């Protein structure tokens, strides 16, 4: 008999769907795997208001394949100008979180926050209305090595922020270091982290040994193997502070394989299968459901999904390339064989 596992239907608590002609690909892939997704607002220009988020939500809804249930959960992008009134309006229009991108930290973060002090009134309002704060946790100053940027962000910004707003719910997004896992594990209640499939499956050797592989390049950048091990440990620990966020981030093929390639890995095509791979390798498949389907909604104060998905152990090869609105898109692990397949 084929081995199989059945899980409560999962959600993705961090995804990039982009806009326009990309939506057919990105929304279709996300909706095949997940019931809900936290949709990142780093469009060009970014989604900075409740009104902008509502309009973006409509564009996403228009691309949900027939017969699928998919609920996009909307987020606004914090800038130096985001004030309490912007937060109040966004909250009233159904936006559930706001995203902090330190200016210059990652893809489309140019309009991000230059000094955390600039958004203290916004954070105050978020704390009182219950809006979540999602954080791309890296410092951006040129004196800090790219491999240390997450760790330094904890010391310089995050540790203080979570204490200055003691009841603000904070998600440290796409953590990549043992330092971040430890910080979150020991942090006060209301602080959690998302972990990507690629940071569980890979480390910087995969990106840099034997040739430079641009499809592994994302931010925060892949770290050493010992950090990867710490992330696997956290994700499979059963701690409700760690949950699934793919950070699936599409960039057309020609922008990845380029002399100045873009940061981001496209994992939405096979996300839950990639996570299953990582959990199986750790001997912790029994911990996948908590991480993928329970701890996220619990943290956000939303109901858990009621239906289920089934994965069968049946090796299959990922396609070499996908189409995204007429452009070639290379999925992470293109051409590689995965052991688990979503039915
Ligand atoms: N993770 C990435 O490398 N890229 C993301 C932005 C982000 O989440 O930092 C993107 O939008 O392309
Ligand atoms: Zn990010
Ligand atoms: Zn992201």
Automatic annotation (TrEMBL):
Pathway: Pyrimidine metabolism; UMP biosynthesis via de novo pathway; (S)-dihydroorotate from bicarbonate: step 3/3. The gene is pyrC. NCBIfam families: pyrC_dimer. Its cofactor is Zn(2+). Binds 2 Zn(2+) ions per subunit. Zn(2+) 1 binds at residues 14, 16, 99, 247. InterPro entries: Amidohydro-rel, DHOdimr, Dihydroorotase_CS, Metal_Hydrolase. Its EC number is 3.5.2.3. Gene3D superfamilies: Metal-dependent hydrolases (3.20.20.140). The modification N6-carboxylysine is found at residue 99. This is Dihydroorotase. It comes from the Bacteria.
